[in-house]
C-alpha cells in the first residue's frame, strides 16, 4: 500500500480535495454549493497540468494526444458510392426474391402471416441479407487451438456465397493472432503456470451451483476480492461472473429515477444497457470532449429534473479507460476537476485498460498519476488482460457493501467458477510480482508497452491512418471502403495472419476499420511479419490514406479554460 | 467528418500517384515487351476497380450486369461526344468570333446574318 501514499504526496493540492469530497459524498443534492468552490477551481487544474509538486518517482505523465486523422475527400465520396451501388443491388436481389426467381435463404414469415406487421423489412435485416452475408466468411471463424499469439483455424468454404459453410477438414496452422484481447499473454496452457489452478479445482470443483447470496460465497471469492482491492489500491472490491453483466446489472443498483447519467458518445453497449435499465435521465456528450461535458453539466444542473425542475438526486459521469473501437484514452485529470467542481460521481469502466496501461499495469489511474480513491466507482473486466472471465467493481467499502446486497448480479447470478477465480488470482499475483518471479510486472508489461509503441510507430510511418492514443494497445487501422474490408481480411488470412475487421453497426458507416490488439506474447519476429504483410497488402489494395499530417478533430482543444467560466 | 475545404482540388492526387508509379513501371515493362507484366498490371487495375466501386462483394453474374451497364453508359457518352462535340465547338467559336467582329455593327445585322 506504499504506492498510494506516494501518489498522495505527488498530487499535493488534490489531496485536500479528496478529504472534502469524503465529507460530501453522503450529500444527496447537487448544484447549489458551487459558490464557495469558485475561487479554488482554477488551481487544481493548474496543478494537474503543470504538476510541479511531484517527488520524482511517480511523476504524473503528460499524455500524448489522441489522433483522429481525417481521410482525403475522395475516400468519402468513393465510400458512399460503393455503399450506394451495393444497396441498389440489394434492392434488386430483394425484388428477385419477392417475385420468386430466387429462393430466400433468410428467415421469412409464413404465408398466413404475410399480412401482419413485417418482421424482416427494416434496414437491419436488409443490411444483413444483402451486405453482411456477402462477406460473412470473415467473422465467426472456427478456431481449434488456444487463442494465444498464434493459433489454428479450421478451414471452411461456402458453395452458395456464404449462406452455408462446410468445413473441409484441413486446418490452417500457426496463424498470427492479432485479434484476441490477450494483452498480457495470459491465454496460455503451460502446465507449470497452471498448477495452482489445478489444485484449486481439485479442492473446490468446477461448478458452484448457487448465487453469491445463497450458498455460493466460497472462500476463494473473498480471497479474490481482497486481492483485487489491494491490486487497485482501493478499500474494497466485488467480483461478478460476466463483464457485460457487471455493467448492466450494477448501474441500475447505483442510480435510479431522478438521477442523471452523462455518458460518452462511444460508450460500450453494456454501459448503455445499464443506463437505460436504471431509468435515470441520460445525456450523451461528445467523445472525450470536456467542453461538451461541462456545457451539459451546467445546463442540466440549472434546469434540474425533467418536469419538476427539482435538483438531481445524483449525477453520474460514465466513461471508459480505453475505448475499444477508437483506441483513445479518457482525459481523466480533466474529468476529475469537472467532477469536483460540479459535485458529480465518476464511473470508470477499465475493461481494456486494466493491466494494459500504466507503468505497473494498474490502469488509467496509474497512467495519469491519479489516486484511484478519487474515482468513485472503478469497474473492470477480467476477460482481457487476465485471461479469465468476469468483472469487478471496486471503490469505497460502503459502496461495495451496498452492492453486495442490492446488485441483481449478486442476488440472481451464479457465482464465479473456482478455476476461473484461481486463474485471476494467479494472474494478479504475477502482475504484482508477489509470486516470486519477475515474469509479470517487469517482463510482460514492458513487453506490451514496447510492442504497442513499435507497432503504432511503424504503422504510422508506413502511411496508414491509425486512430487513438500512442500508448493504447488497441490499434484501429482505417479501411473506409466496403469492398476493401472483405478483401483485406481474406488477404491477411491467406498470409496466415488473423485480423478482426469491423464494419457498419459497430462503427459509423463510413469508417470501417481493422482492429489490431497487441499482446505481450507477440515476439518481435511476429510483429515484423505482420508489418511486412501490411506493407505489401497496403500497397496492393491501396489503403495507405495518410497524408502524414494529422488534423485534430475541431472540437478537441489543447487548453481547457475552466477558469474563464467561473 | 471529412474536411471539405482542405484538399478538394487535389482529390484525385493520391489515386493518380499510385497509378502513375504503376504506369511508369508498366511503361518500362512495355518497352521490354513483357506481356506477362502488362497482363498482371491490367489485372491489378481491374481488381482496384472492383474494390473501389464495391463490386468485389457481389456474385459474378451481378458483376457482369454492372459491368455491362457501365460499359453501355460509357460507350454512349463516347459516341455522343464524338458526334456532337465538334459541332458544338464550331458553333461556339462562330458565335464568339461574330461577337468580336460584329462590335461596330448593330445587333439587327447580327440577327439577319443568321
UniProtKB/TrEMBL annotation, chain A:
Belongs to the class-II pyridoxal-phosphate-dependent aminotransferase family. It comes from Cyprinus carpio (Common carp). Residues 39-50 have a biased composition (Polar residues). It comes from the Eukaryota. Pathway: Sphingolipid metabolism; Lipid metabolism; sphingolipid metabolism. It is found in: Endoplasmic reticulum membrane. Residues 174-534 form the Aminotransferase class I/classII large domain. GO terms for molecular function: pyridoxal phosphate binding; serine C-palmitoyltransferase activity. GO terms for biological process: ceramide biosynthetic process; sphingosine biosynthetic process. Its cofactor is pyridoxal 5'-phosphate. It is an enzyme of class 2 (transferase). Keywords: Acyltransferase, Endoplasmic reticulum, Lipid metabolism, Membrane, Pyridoxal phosphate, Sphingolipid metabolism, Transferase, Transmembrane, Transmembrane helix. InterPro entries: Aminotrans_II_pyridoxalP_BS, Aminotransferase_I/II_large, AON_synthase_class-II, PyrdxlP-dep_Trfase, PyrdxlP-dep_Trfase_major, PyrdxlP-dep_Trfase_small. Residues 21-62 are annotated as: Disordered. SUPFAM superfamilies: PLP-dependent transferases. The chain crosses the membrane at residues 71-92. GO terms for cellular component: endoplasmic reticulum membrane; serine palmitoyltransferase complex. Its EC number is 2.3.1.50. This is serine C-palmitoyltransferase. Residues 52-62 have a biased composition (Basic and acidic residues). It is a single-pass membrane protein.
UniProtKB/TrEMBL annotation, chain B:
It is a multi-pass membrane protein. One of its GO terms (cellular component) is serine palmitoyltransferase complex. It holds the Pfam family SPT_ssu-like. GO terms for molecular function: serine C-palmitoyltransferase activity. The keyword Endoplasmic reticulum applies. Component of the serine palmitoyltransferase multisubunit enzyme (SPT) that catalyzes the initial and rate-limiting step in sphingolipid biosynthesis by condensing L-serine and activated acyl-CoA (most commonly palmitoyl-CoA) to form long-chain bases. The SPT complex is composed of SPTLC1, SPTLC2 or SPTLC3 and SPTSSA or SPTSSB. Within this complex, the heterodimer consisting of SPTLC1 and SPTLC2/SPTLC3 forms the catalytic core. Within the SPT complex, SPTSSB stimulates the catalytic activity and plays a role in substrate specificity. Component of the serine palmitoyltransferase (SPT) complex, which is composed of SPTLC1, SPTLC2 or SPTLC3 and SPTSSA or SPTSSB. The heterodimer consisting of SPTLC1 and SPTLC2/SPTLC3 forms the catalytic core of the enzyme, while SPTSSA or SPTSSB subunits determine substrate specificity. SPT also interacts with ORMDL proteins, especially ORMDL3, which negatively regulate SPT activity in the presence of ceramides. Belongs to the SPTSS family. SPTSSB subfamily. This is Serine palmitoyltransferase small subunit B. It comes from Cyprinus carpio.
Amino acid at each position: 500500500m506504499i504506492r498510494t501514499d506516494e501518489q498522495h504526496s505527488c498530487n499535493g493540492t488534490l489531496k485536500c480535495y479528496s478529504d472534502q469530497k469524503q465529507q460530501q459524498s453522503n450529500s444527496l443534492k447537487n448544484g447549489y454549493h458551487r459558490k464557495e468552490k469558485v475561487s479554488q477551481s482554477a488551481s487544481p487544474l493548474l496543478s494537474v497540468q503543470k504538476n510541479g509538486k511531484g517527488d520524482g518517482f511517480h511523476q504524473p505523465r503528460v499524455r500524448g494526444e489522441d489522433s483522429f486523422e481525417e481521410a482525403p475527400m475522395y475516400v468519402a465520396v468513393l465510400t458512399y458510392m460503393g455503399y450506394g451501388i451495393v444497396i441498389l443491388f440489394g434492392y434488386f436481389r430483394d425484388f428477385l426474391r419477392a417475385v420468386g426467381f430466387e429462393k430466400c435463404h433468410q428467415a421469412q414469415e409464413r404465408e398466413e402471416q404475410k399480412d401482419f406487421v413485417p418482421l424482416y423489412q427494416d434496414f437491419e435485416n436488409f443490411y444483413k441479407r444483402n451486405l453482411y452475408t456477402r462477406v460473412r466468411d470473415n467473422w465467426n471463424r472456427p478456431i481449434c487451438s488456444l487463442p494465444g499469439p498464434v493459433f489454428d483455424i479450421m478451414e471452411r468454404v461456402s458453395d452458395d456465397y456464404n449462406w452455408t459453410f462446410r468445413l473441409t477438414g484441413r486446418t490452417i496452422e500457426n496463424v498470427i493472432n492479432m485479434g484476441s484481447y490477450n494483452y498480457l499473454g495470459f491465454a496460455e496452457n503451460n502446465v507449470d503456470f497452471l498448477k495452482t489452478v489445478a489444485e484449486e479445482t481439485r479442492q473446490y470443483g468446477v461448478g458452484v451451483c448457487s448465487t453469491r447470496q445463497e450458498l455460493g460465497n466460497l472462500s476463494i471469492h473473498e480471497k479474490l476480492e481482497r486481492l483485487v482491492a489491494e491490486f487497485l489500491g482501493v478499500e474494497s472490491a466485488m467480483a461478478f461472473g460476466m463483464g457485460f453483466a457487471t455493467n448492466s446489472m450494477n448501474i441500475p443498483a447505483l442510480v435510479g429515477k431522478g438521477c442523471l447519467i452523462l455518458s460518452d458518445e462511444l460508450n460500450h453497449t453494456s454501459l448503455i444497457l445499464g443506463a437505460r435499465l436504471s431509468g435515470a435521465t441520460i445525456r450523451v456528450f461528445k467523445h472525450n470532449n470536456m467542453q461538451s461535458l461541462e456545457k451539459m453539466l451546467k445546463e442540466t444542473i440549472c434546469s434540474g429534473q425533467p418536469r419538476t425542475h427539482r435538483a438531481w438526486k445524483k449525477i453520474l459521469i460514465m466513461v471508459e479507460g480505453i475505448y475499444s473501437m477508437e483506441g483513445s484514452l479518457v482525459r481523466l485529470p480533466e474529468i476529475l476537476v469537472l467532477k469536483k467542481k460540479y459535485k458529480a460521481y465518476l464511473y470508470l469502466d477499465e475493461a481494456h485498460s486494466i493491466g494494459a496501461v500504466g507503468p505497473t499495469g494498474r490502469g488509467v489511474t496509474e497512467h495519469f498519476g491519479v489516486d484511484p480513491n478519487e474515482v468513485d466507482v472503478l469497474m473492470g473486466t477480467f476477460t482481457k488482460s487476465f485471461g479469465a472471465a468476469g468483472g469487478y467493481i471496486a471503490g469505497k467499502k460502503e459502496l461495495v457493501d451496498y452492492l453486495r446486497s442490492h446488485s441483481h448480479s449478486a442476488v440472481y447470478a451464479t457465482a464465479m467458477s473456482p478455476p476461473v477465480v484461481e486463474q485471476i488470482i494467479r494472474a494478479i499475483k504475477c502482475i504484482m510480482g508477489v509470486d516470486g518471479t519477475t515474469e509479470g510486472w517487469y517482463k510482460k508489461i514492458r513487453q506490451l508497452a514496447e510492442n504497442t509503441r513499435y507497432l503504432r510507430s511503424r504503422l504510422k510511418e508506413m502511411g496508414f491512418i491509425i486512430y487513438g492514443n500512442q500508448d493504447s494497445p488497441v490499434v484501429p487501422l482505417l479501411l473506409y471502403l466496403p469492398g476493401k474490408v472483405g478483401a483485406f481480411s481474406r488477404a491477411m488470412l491467406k498470409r496466415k495472419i488473423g485480423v478482426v475487421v469491423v464494419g457498419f453497426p459497430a462503427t459509423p458507416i463510413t469508417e470501417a476499420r481493422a482492429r489490431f490488439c497487441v499482446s505481450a506474447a507477440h515476439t518481435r519476429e511476429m510483429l515484423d511479419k505482420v508489418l511486412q504483410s501490411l506493407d505489401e497488402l497496403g500497397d496492393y489494395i491501396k489503403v495507405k490514406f495518410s497524408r502524414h499530417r494529422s488534423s485534430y478533430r475541431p472540437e478537441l482543444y489543447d487548453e481547457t479554460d475552466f477558469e474563464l467560466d467561473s | 467528418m471529412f474536411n471539405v475545404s482542405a484538399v478538394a482540388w487535389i482529390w484525385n492526387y493520391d489515386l493518380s500517384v499510385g497509378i502513375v508509379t504503376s504506369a511508369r513501371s508498366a511503361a518500362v515493362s512495355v518497352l521490354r515487351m513483357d506481356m506477362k507484366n502488362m497482363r498482371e498490371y491490367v489485372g491489378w487495375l481491374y481488381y482496384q476497380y472492383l474494390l473501389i466501386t464495391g463490386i468485389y462483394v457481389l456474385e459474378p453474374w451481378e458483376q457482369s450486369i454492372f459491368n455491362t451497364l457501365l460499359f453501355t453508359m460509357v460507350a454512349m457518352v463516347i459516341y455522343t461526344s464524338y458526334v456532337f462535340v465538334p459541332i458544338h465547338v464550331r458553333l461556339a467559336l462562330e458565335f464568339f468570333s461574330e461577337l468580336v467582329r460584329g462590335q461596330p455593327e448593330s445587333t439587327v445585322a447580327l440577327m439577319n446574318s443568321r
